Amino acid sequence: MLRLDGIDAGYGAVRVLRGLTLSVAAGEVLCVMGRNGAGKSTMLKTIMGQVRATAGTIDLDGTRIDPLPAHEVPRHGIGYVPQGRRLFGDLTVAENIEIGLMTRARDARVRDKVLDLFPRLRERMGQISRTLSGGEQQMLAIARALCLEPKVLLLDEPTEGLQPSMIALIRDTVVALKSTGVATVLVEQRVDAALSVADRIAFMTGGSVAETVPAAGLHPNAAHFAAYVGV
Amino acid sequence: MDFGPFLLLALMEGLVTAAVLALTASGLSLVFGIMRVVNVAHGAFFMLGAVLAWFVSEWVPGPPALSFAVALVICPLIVGGIAALADTVVLKRLNYEPEATIVATIGLLYILEQAALSFFGPDARPVPAPLNFRIQLPWFGYSGYKLAVVVGAALVLLAVWLILKHTRAGLVMRATQIDRDTARAFGINVDRVYAGVFAMGAGLAAIAAVLIVPIQQAHYLMGGDPLLLSFIVVIIGGLGSLRGTLVAALLIGLSDGVISTFFAPTLAKIIATLVVALVLVFRPQGLFGKRMA
Ligand SMILES: Nc1ncnc2c1ncn2[C@@H]1O[C@H](COP(=O)(O)OP(=O)(O)OP(=O)(O)O)[C@@H](O)[C@H]1O
Ligand SMILES: [Mg+2]
């Protein structure tokens, strides 16, 4: 579905990603783990075209998307939940949803389907999104991305700072999407959260993927986590 | 005339100033609010609107009302088109760096003024008013056209507000203003939004100019005052706040009318500039602006 091959990227003269290669298939959940500053968020921004790749290719279903202007990338079916949520804070819940729907011209039917996943948002459509609780904000960030009916979903530390019941809700959502064939790239720092949904785990260090391991074979105490995540 | 009617006259004159100023300044405010661009060429877009209105009044035959209606539609479109072009060809290439865009729009200001000098000439030229009736009050008669200007400006401002708050285009503009990277991640073509906003800002200045030119005459250097006053209004109201812009325009316009009538126009400008200095010292974010990080 989505494949990154030999990607170099960075900010100005600073190179962050070096020869990064990874891929995720339809209906697969790929977890990306690595220390702070390993380049996880930069990798997602590069997929979205916000950071330009200076070498390598990004391929979505046989189409190269790395040369596209940033606003055309989501139109190919990539939904993005950025780190720290990045809601349009001064806009209402309904308006944030509306922008998600506009991305690929989806209608009220899709909106209703998405809101069925997060009924708490439906009660708060008129609320300014900045004033939502942290958990509600994360629901809205995910709902906004689902409004474009993505083929590929990129989630950047969606469980950061949330209580267990919210983390469970996000996990259930990812599992439900997986069964519909969505390919998910999930950046996750918590070992338990990663192991509960991942098919494979990619360990990043120094801007590239050091190792990719099937999640089924990993124990929470595996040396990988100590080596690459520092837990 | 007694003091009461004299004050009323001053306030009515002030209201006309305020209406035109609110239109012009809202264009400047929109561009700054959404694009973070300080557009020094805003006054030149105003001038261009007035100069083009003169050309239209010369070329379109028939009654002044007809050529005025044509000017009201065509001038903002042409000026907006030029602005969109300037955005795409110049500002976008500068990556909207604040210092670079200020220098670039100063350059644009001179180019537009020199172009107007070449094609329009150095003289001030009158444009006939589309309607010629006086409203007879008990104490004095007042130009019906001036009141029409106030109504027209209010309608345009209402339309701007409706567009921003209640249309898809407005939603896209507000989202871009809040976070342009995330806007792009949801398919918003930020380059196109910027070109559109820059055109809209310039178009508002052009509409204001077309409205005022039957009262003021067109001249290739007429953009200076509207630019200065718009900056004053936008700073007092709070950069990027449309509501603040309206309130400040009323404040500056009405006090300008009163002070100019009872004392002198120069004193009105001095006081307005002083007010800006005071606002900058005591409330740098403006009356309605949000404090920036
Ligand atoms: N806008 C930027 N400008 C310059 N350098 C940046 C920028 N954003 C990130 N970096 C640098 O790029 C490197 C990778 O950052 P990135 O955000 O991708 O890390 P991460 O793996 O997501 O970390 P975390 O777990 O803390 O979220 C860091 O060294 C960071 O300082
Ligand atoms: Mg990160």
How does this model look, in words?
The complex is a heterodimer of chains A (231) and B (293). In chain A, 33% of the residues lie in helices and 28% in strands. In chain A, strand 4 and strand 5 form a beta hairpin. Chain A has a domain at 1-73 and 183-231: Rossmann fold (3-Layer(aba) Sandwich). By secondary structure, chain A is of the alpha/beta class. Chain A has helices at 40-47, 93-103, 108-117, 119-122, 134-146, 164-179, 191-197, 223-229, and strands at residues 2-11, 14-24, 29-34, 53-60, 63-64, 78-81, 152-156, 183-187, 200-205, 208-214. The relative contact order of chain A is 0.19. In chain A, the strands form 2 sheets. Chain A has a 6-stranded mixed sheet, with helices on both faces. A 4-stranded antiparallel sheet of chain A has the order 2-1-4-5, with helices on one face. Chain A is globular. The longest helix of chain A has 16 residues, at 164-179. Chain B is an all-alpha fold. Chain B has a domain at 22-221. Chain B is 76% helix and 2% strand. Chain B is built from 11 helices and 2 strands, in the order ααααββααααααα. Chain B has a two-stranded antiparallel ribbon. In chain B, strand 1 (134-136) and strand 2 (141-143) form a beta hairpin. In chain B, helix 1 (3-35) packs antiparallel against helix 10 (242-262). The longest helix of chain B is centred in the first third of the chain and has 33 residues, at 3-35. The radius of gyration of chain B is 19 Å and the shape is globular. Chain B starts with a helix and ends in an 11-residue tail after the last helix. The mean pLDDT of chain B is 92. Chains A and B meet through helix 2 of A and helix 6 and helix 7 of B. The structure holds adenosine-5'-triphosphate (ATP) and magnesium ion (MG). The site of adenosine-5'-triphosphate (ATP) has 12 residues of chain A, from strand 2 and helix 1.
